[in-house]
Design brief:
The chain is α/β, with parallel strands linked by helices. The protein has a single domain, classed as Spore Coat Polysaccharide Biosynthesis Protein SpsA, Chain A (Alpha-Beta Complex), CATH 3.90.550.10. It is built from six helices and seven strands, in the order E-H-H-E-E-H-E-H-E-E-H-E-H. It has a seven-stranded mixed β-sheet with strand order 3-2-1-4-6-5-7, sandwiched between helices. Helix 1 packs across helix 2. The longest helix has 19 residues. It is globular.
Length: about 200
């Protein structure tokens, strides 16, 4: 069965990435950090032969004008709408098979985490990678769930995001979870990461 990995990303440009983090540490440092995180994510995951990687990119037009930051990977444009709609649309755009979506700002992510998510979809309908802030850094769907309604009433950017996403799944949905990791959304998240690991 085919495996598709979607990396959700923004073109690294001044004032266009990690705006909450930029409010805490400044636009320049936030952009520099995002560039490193994005490059690390694509380097670790993008060429893994266990799956096909596609970047779901913003802002609009990146699929027509991919830059060097995409590292030669296939690119689709994110649709307009809230985060849930954009993620669901990106996953629905993949060919048949299993699909896993991750963000581009998870410093601890490794290929093993993605492989574990795909394995979980052998006997589960949906898989989540829970984040330490109550959100999730990964979501994956088995083929039977590709057309299911998702992310209807999620309080994004809150400690309730994962719980809301799970609560909104169809009844009887079999849900798996993989490793607890962290993304870096703001200064507090960056500080917590640096306390656990060396700075990226």
């Amino acid at each position: 069965m085919k495996r598709h990995l979607v990396v959700f990303a923004r073109r690294p440009a001044w004032g266009q990435v990690k705006t909450r983090l930029a409010a805490d540490i400044g636009r320049g440092p936030a952009l520099a950090l995002y560039k490193r995180l994005l490059a690390r994510t694509l380097r670790r995951l993008g060429r893994d032969r266990r799956w096909t990687t596609v970047i779901a990119a913003a802002p609009a037009g990146q699929a027509r004008r991919p830059g060097r930051w995409t590292r030669g990977l296939a690119v689709i444009d994110q649709e307009q709408g809230d985060l849930g709609h954009r993620m669901a649309a990106a996953m629905a755009a993949m060919p048949s098979g299993k699909v896993v979506l991750v963000g581009s700002d998870i410093p601890e992510v490794r290929g093993g985490h993605i492989a574990a998510a795909f394995r979980a979809l052998d006997d589960h309908d949906v898989v989540f990678g829970p984040a330490r802030d109550g959100g999730f850094w990964l979501v994956g769907l088995a083929p039977a769930m590709r057309d299911a309604p998702l992310f209807g009433a999620v309080r994004w950017s809150s400690a309730h995001a994962l719980a809301d996403a799970v609560a909104g799944l169809p009844p009887g949905c079999r849900v798996a979870r993989v490793a607890l990791l962290s993304d870096i959304d703001d200064g507090a998240g960056l500080a917590r990461w640096r306390m656990r690991r060396k700075p990226v």
